Predict the structure.
Amino acid sequence: MLTTLDTEIRIDGLTKRFGTDGPIVLEDITLSIAPGEFVCLLGASGCGKSTLLNIIAGLDRPTSGTVTVASGSAAVMFQESALFPWLTAGRNVELALKLRGVPRAERRSQALELLDLVNLADAAHKRPHELSGGMRQRVALARSLAQDRKVLLMDEPFAALDAITRDLLHEELERIWRETGRTIVFVTHNVREAARLGQRVLLMSSRPGRIANEWRLADTGPRRIESPEVSRLSIEITEQLRQEIRRNAH
Amino acid sequence: MPTESSTLVSPVAAPRDDDFRSLEAGLDALQTVPLAERGRWRRIVDGVLPPVLLLAALVLAWQLYVVIAQPRPDLIPGPFNVAASIGELWSNGRLQQAVLTSLARGGAGFLIAVAIGTPLGLLLAEWRLLRRALGPLLSGLQVLPSVAWVPAAIIWFGLTDATVYFVVLMGAVPSIANGLVAGIDQVPPQLRRVGTVLGASPLQLATLVILPAALPGYLAGLKQGWAFSWRSLMAAEIIAMGGSIGFGLGSMLQQSRDLADLPAVLATILVILFVGILVELIAFAPVERSLLRHRGLTPGGTR
């Protein structure tokens, strides 16, 4: 095993192409992510960041190279909440507990605790269509926490939300990350979001997708998206992101 | 599998920034619109009044025509003749017998069709090769009027109930199977992926995710299946009479025709129509309404 004590996810020489002679989507990606780390994968559309996430999640297979998740498998949260519309918010979380093998007697109370974690204990009896987009994403977050995996993979989870809601959810997610010690890989195309949330921001180039650069941020406690440090970093990352996009002009 | 770490769940509900909680609760309140529930009485009035009024208007127009144009009563009987005919059929007990016989047969045929059509639909939805092979045939059978099977069924089974059931099944099974296939096809792939990510086994994926998600389409198939059962049954009863086949509404219709008793013919048509409406209202409409409302698919729902 390649995994060492301080590696939660290890990716070695990963290459992905769709079909036998399709274009290369991801090329030679090598990466290791420490336990409890909050990593943002940033890139323009079509850089393969979602594909990379799906491969880590086990929903897709690499063409070559290896991916190892030390704790076994990962929880995933998508851009659409993908809640089951025929179940209430509480039952949605309970279903995840059930599929994890939690005994029936404990499911109800654990589901309520998880919903309370995202401040939605009062909405447990509501159905997804009665909730706003932000509330649905919080239920989806509670559901992915119900999986109780050490790794949480998030695929542009806040991309469809309005700015005010997104700002609140950033705060919520950061708090939950600090409280639960999850390892989070967060895919986004929003530079400020990446600079606001990540301890580490990985910039991906497009066609083929490679890790173009990475920034490590000193974790000095919660920061705001309006803060000067986030702005400074955003400007720097945006500059390089634009260079990467320009390379595709010819 | 990291199953030992359920400690991640419980101790985190520690005291937390109340400002943040109230901020989030405020935003939630702004972004959700409470549903204004219409009262039960209001719903009934809204649902029942328009069709009843229309029906009354139609009957009135019919009666006016009979009074003003004075057509031959054996060709165009008035509403009172038809009502009298219903009363007569009722008082000699033939109406009740026919309704019960037809309903029992239609119901039994429909249930058998469900028992055959459901597994067939599941197989078709999940097994591509079978679907490619059998799909077109099944769609063709759905279009083929099942009354076309009556002559063959009489030759095969004689004048027995088997003839009636065969025709009913040929009418209903394709609709039910196709409805289930359509329902399963429309399950968003995202829901399947979530099921997989949550660790569902193939069986759990089918029973906990795919089937509940396919329920609206399946229900539409069931409704259509019932409609086809009822129609096929009437056709079979009209054509196949005598032998050990009991006396159903179709038989009553055919008998009235043989006697050139037009009021009784019209009366029977109305009864067949109303039994169909009644089954729809009592059996299917409530299930469909609650199914759709729970998923936010009714026009009255928000978001």
